[in-house]
Amino acid sequence: MSAVTLEYPTSWLATLGLDAEHFAEETRMAAAMKLFERGRLSSGQAAQLAEVPRAEFLLACRQWGVDSVSWDDDDLEAEFNGSLPLSSPQA
Fold first, then answer.
1. What is the pLDDT of residue 90?
2. pLDDT of residue 32
3. 25-63 in b/e burial notation, b at 16+ Cβ within 10 A?
4. Which domains are assigned to the chain?
């Protein structure tokens, strides 16, 4: 494994109201969320970077304003194989 070191002024901890451990957790989650949002990491890889279980990562996406799933119409059609109508039928 490789590691990334981040240097920051200790005054940030007081400003954010965090201790060093919680700042590190939030920083890992922020990086994981952004890389996942941009499609650079899968949800499993992002969860590994954030050091949380995948389910926890996916549930946290909403709090971070990140879509946990992003499917276009073709993806939806393939997933449901046309079994669900995408629009309501006309009466």
1. 59
2. 98
3. eeebbebbbebbbeeebebeebbebbebeeeebbebbee
4. 11-80 (1.10.10)
